[in-house]
Amino acid sequence: SAGSSGADDGGFYFNSKLAAIKHSDRLKAYLPLAHRAGIRVIVYVNVHWYSKDFGSRHPDWLQKRHDGSPVDTVYSTGVSFCINSSYREWVFQLLKELCAYPIDGIFYDGPIFFSDSCYCDSCVHEFQKRTGKNPPQKSDKNHPLWKEFISFQIDSYERFLKESNEIIKSIRQDILFYINGNSHWPNWPTGRDNHRIIKHTDILGAEGGFLYGDLNQTPVYKPGMTGKLLVSQARGKPAIVFDTGEHRSWNWFLLPEAEVSILLAETLSSGANYWYACFAPNINQPELDVVKRYNLLIKKNPDAFFQTKSLANVALVWPGRSAETYLSSVPFTDFTREIKDEEIGDVHQEFAGWYEVLARSQVPFDVIDEEGFDNLSQYQMIVLPNAACLSAEDTRALKEFVAEGGTLVSDFETSLYDEQGNKRDDFALAEIIGAHFSGHKFGPMMWDYIIPQHGKHLLSGIIKRYLPATRYGIEVSTGTADVLFFFAERMAGCYDHLPEISREPFLLVNRYKKGTS
Ligand SMILES: [Zn+2]
Q: What is the DSSP letter of 424?
């Protein structure tokens, strides 16, 4: 409504007893026109961003920070309501009213918790009921109740979706329901866990094709990363990557046509479907012709795009467990500097790096997370990008995979922590890797090298003596593994001297039963 930023109850163009202002029923007029033209209508419901004015009329619905202040900076301008408050009943009423129309679906944009919320009375009360204690700060990851609080938010989220879906399906079974889900990002800031979401929705979708800021810093593969992960998490239901035309955060400015084309091509080739959005001022701009061209391509070649099945025999793992709980703290050996924990072993960057290695090598591959470990037999190779936190069950599945002849690629602290983030004495996969953790990580290495063992079968074609080292390393004692690369002796500066080979292994190959690591 006029003078406010964010949704409220003043702009309903359908019949609702919640409407503060009565408007004409445009939904009723629009639906038969759309259906006659073969357009299915899925109604967008904003459940994450409301005007401050509307918030001031419902103070008990507001999401709150730990200090009791309301979350009032959504897109810098609005508030957000809490699904554990009686706001949920307001949303459910809205759902019932919308589903009374012959609509084809409901799309929830949100809801989400924020990285510093929610501590509203309802959440505090519910958490006290569950634990007898007050909720900890979400920023305090070492707090003994931190994981319990995250679980509480994920459970709250699932309960809200379950009830929403039950209401929708009780009105009409064929009304689709889906939401704005998560991708290759941690679940803890928002409470969104795709494995829980997909139990109560018909489509799994996430914003893999939203591009922000400096595009040179955004992997060109971003929509594909999302698409491949969603396809495996959706377990047979449709997966959708949300692509948008605008170059964010300039939401009224379109990306060039080539960028839009990349978004759509990346999405389609990942096995997912695209959902393409742009704002009203841009709807007739020439850049959008590319969307028409892709739509026609799909229409002309439906077999290539509908109900497809991946033939990849390589899987890259999104280390989801590590994304939630892994904190890499490092006692340095030499050249010690103050390094922030999050710079070391960042699983997000590890994943992006391995994704690029496989994509640039033109290896067809799937993306799975640990929930996909129950079905590894279709693969010949699994890549674990610093999958630091793995459960006993995860490692059992991986051991069996290698024992049966599979190839496992893993790096850095893979399997050195359990699924709760507790450090183990040794890699759980030590037997597979053929080496043991000897107690130290080291780095950063700014100008150091690794040195290949020329003559080894796997290194044919590598003729250089010095290759750049990784920024960090991990000390291992070699068991049954063969060393292909060693670190070079560390140098005091980039012109210090030509370094000799050290005894620190960099790259190991190991045979385990019928397979290789
Ligand atoms: Zn709350």
A: P
